[in-house]
Structure formats: structure tokens, C-alpha cells
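One such given next:
>
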Amino acid sequence: MDERVPRDFETLRATILERRHSLPKRIAQIAAYALDNPDDIAFGTAASIAASAGVQPSTLIRFAQQLGFDGFTSLQLVFRERLRERNSSYDERLAALRAKAEEGAGHRAIFDGFVAAASTSLSDISRTLNEPHFEEAIALLAKAETIYVLAKRRSYPVASYIAYALGKLKIRNQLIESAAGLNAEMVGFATPRDAVIAISFSPYAPATIEETRAISEQGVPIVAITDSSFSPLAQFAKVWFEVAEADFAGFRSLSATMALAMALTVAVGEKRRDTGRKRKG
């Protein structure tokens, strides 16, 4: 294997992110799928992976060769090694709980499954949080005149909490929602002196993407919370966070997202208070 070929998952991920804008459309499509579904890449067949990603099996080979591998099997080994290196205790626990639920172990198994998924999500974000990005986002939001909060569907509870907490902290904010269909007008009030927190996960809500696009074109800085570097939100954001939520029985947790949202909100409040004290002093 060429010395320049990524030998571990983190290096591979960094290489894909570095090249993502120059990748051909179909290869970029499988690259996005690979980063979002690394476990599937590790143990799926070429046919099953291609079907799930919506590409031809030959695209997998081209994807691997684009990264310097001699074939897809060589690339797949990097994804398998990631699983061997990762602490699998929570994954094993989730698998055991799923088996119990399927065996009719009762409703307690469902509760335990969701708790285990939440624990996995929290453990992952604690391990992977980019602290410089976290500080940059806090500084950006703390100096905003108004913080706009934008999310739909599954992400909406997080946005609702952020707006509630910002209000309690006496920080001017606007949750972008309107029963009268005035979202575009609300977005139109934002200026570069404001900031936006935008939240969306795959499959991304089209309204969230369009409103984020519109507000970015107004020069308003955006902090995005999403689930992939290939997320449409990432291209509009000044700072963005990748949050991978575990699931139980197909239902994804919001535990890590909510923890990040709470931390951002409270930290912004603290930052504004510190700034206020310094000005008075």
C-alpha cells in the first residue's frame, strides 16, 4: 500500500473532507454515505452498500482508487479496523437489548435500550467535541444583537429549548416559526450584527436548508448543528458541529444534541455576563 494512503479511519476521514469539493458527483455521494454509515461500509457487501448509497457497485471501486487504495476491499479494512479499535461496550449492550426486546423481554427492555442509546450519544460527543470550535461558536453568539434559532421536524424540540433558555437568560432571540407562513419575513429581519443557530439532521428538512441559505446570503453568521460534514448546513456555517446520535429500534436519540444546545446556551449567557462586567469595570 502506498505510504500516502490513509491507514486509519481518522486519517481517511480527514482526507475525504479535504477533497470533498473536488470529488466527482457520484463519488462524493458514496463518500458522504461512508462517513455517515461507517459500520455499514465495514461489513456490507459491495452490492448492498451501493444500493443503500444509491450508486453503482463500480462507483465503490472508483471511490477507493480515488483515495489511493487498490480496490474497495482494501478500503473496507480501514472501516473494519475502526470497529476493532472502538470501545464496543455500549454497542454490545444495545445489541443485547435489541435481542431481549425481540425475545419479548417486556417494556423494561425498551426503556433500557433508549437509555443505552442516550449514553452512547453522550459518550461520543464528549470524546469528539472540537473545543476551539465550541469557543468560537460561543464568542460569535455572545456578541450577536439577536440570536435566530432555526429547526424543523425532529430537530424542533432542540430549537424550542434554546429559545426558551435564551429568553430566561434575557438574551434577545427569535425562533423562526410562524403559523401564518411568515418565516421568510422573519428571516429577512436578520443582519450581519445578528447570528443564527441552525439545526438539521438527515434527511434534512428542505425548509431549514432554504431558510439557512437565505439568511447566509444576508451575511448573517451561522452556527450549525448537524450530523455530517456533507450536510447542506455545513457549507453555510461559520462554525458547525457534527453530532452522531445513536438509535434504538430505529428511533434516534437527541441526547447529545440537547447537551450541546444546553452547553452553548448557558456558555453564551456566561460570556455575555463576563463581557458586561469588564465594561463596567
